[in-house]
Design a protein that fits this description.
Layout (H helix, E strand, L loop, with lengths): L10 H14 L17 H14 L4 E8 L2 E12 L4 E2 L6 E2 L4 H14 L21 H6 L2 H5 L13 H4 L3 H7 L17 H15 L3 H10 L8 E2 H4 L15 E5 L2 E5 L8 H4 L1 E3 L1 H12 L3 E2 L2 E2 L3 H8 L3 E2 L17 E3 L2 E6 L2 E10 L2 E8 L4 E7 L6 H14 L8 H16 L20 E5 L3 E8 L2 E6 L4 E9 L2 E4 L9 E7 L5 E6 L2 E7 L1
Helix pairs in contact: 2-14, 3-8, 3-9, 3-13
Length: 519
Amino acid sequence: MAPRTLTRPHTAGLLALAPLLMAASLPPAGLPGYAPGTGVDAAAARRISRWALAEYAVPGAAIALVQDGRLTLVEGFGVRDLASGAPTTADTVFQLASVSKTFTAATVAALVDRKKLGWEQPMVSLLPGFRLQDAYAGQWVNARDLLSHRAGFPAFFGDLFDHLGYGDADVLRRIRYVEPATSFRDRPAYSNIGFFLAGELAAQAGGQPFPELTRSLIVEPLAMTRTGVASRLIGDGSNPDALTDISRSHAVVNGRLQVVPPNLSALFIAAGGFASNATDLGRFITLLARGGEIDGRRVLSEAAVKAMFEPVIAEEPGFAEFPPIDAHSGFDYSPGWGVYHYNGLKVLEKGGALDGVRTLLVVVPQKRFAVAILANRNLTALPEAVRAALLQQAFGRPGEADLQPAIRAKAQDIERLLLAAEPRPADAKPPARPLAAYTGTYRNDLWGTWTVAERDGALEVQAGPARYRAPLTPWNGETFALRWPGVLSSPVQVPFRRDAAGRMSGFDYLGYGFRRVVP
């Protein structure tokens, strides 16, 4: 995704947002009117949503709420575009980010219902050419493994493939070169690669490209008219068929909250590439809260929904989990979801995050309760704050502590962690050679062919068939810093190697060695 010039927000929009920005810097505050266990109605959900919008300085958000299996609220708040001031409505389309994974799990479940795929069916039975570096894992990995992050892939690895310009078949072949981080089924590690593979497995079983398969099995049966691939519905400004009622991405850049380019999936659709709105998500979560039935007809069997919601592998709550998830709640992965417990209730939850977007779905099956929350600001904990408030108001116990101060404090810690600048070495040395010595074409079995070029007195990487560009800046001697485009991109240290004659022979990227193929 190439950077582009950002639209300057209207002054009126900035003035309207000023109180929100001041609120974002205040000490953690509790929920106004906090009364655990007293119940939630549409008015209370609106009040909580408006409070969170101001508390977290988010331009716009939308919510869908299901209680006792009935959709009781679908509404938008704030603005969908800070630059234009256009309002957020229930029909405003947001990128779903990793909430897309719940649609992938539902698509697989629908295929299992139709006996076209089994949860435990090895992937190689449908894709006989598939291989992993761990031969045993490659022989036995199945949909349940992929959808519950237990295939052994490194955590949060491989998203770069969304930008390199390779096709599905090429990436499917290249994944055999990914070095495992853990033994197969030993412990989980959150993996978008796993969901990409689940999408490929589903497509092979269903006989359609994955996005079309999800549309035919889930989206169309639920009459979800504004749900689909984000790059088609939202676009990057070059798609004439993109919708107009869409939420723009927002992030603080150079100290100012502003519209930023969307981070759109080109390849990992099954991991994070869908878009939807509160109206459509209200239909989806109603289906889940009702165990697979809606409008008097069944879209998923009860067994399929139960399989999606059944814990597969335990995980320690990480830095991205917010209260009420803690050391006492338990935390597991089921196909497409995280699972924990709150006051004796089993809670299914899936969040998503991309540049300028935060999303969240929650289902409490025992109570036929569910909520979908969409927000258009980077890093915000608004979705977690809203869902915690709703859970406590609906199912809390008298006297239990308000979770909001802890959520706000953790959000601030995460923001400081992710936005902190990486320290430079105290005795950093300049490159030992002229920049031209590092230029050339380099190749790696996993990542493919990259070019290092000199441009305007600096180095840049041009990666893959798309020639995805990123600056390569001096860091310390023969080590350079590579920073891909994107609001949350962090520098990756890239050390170059020399051959016996002193010429640059390759470099390392995230532990993967590139060899020079063209001087």
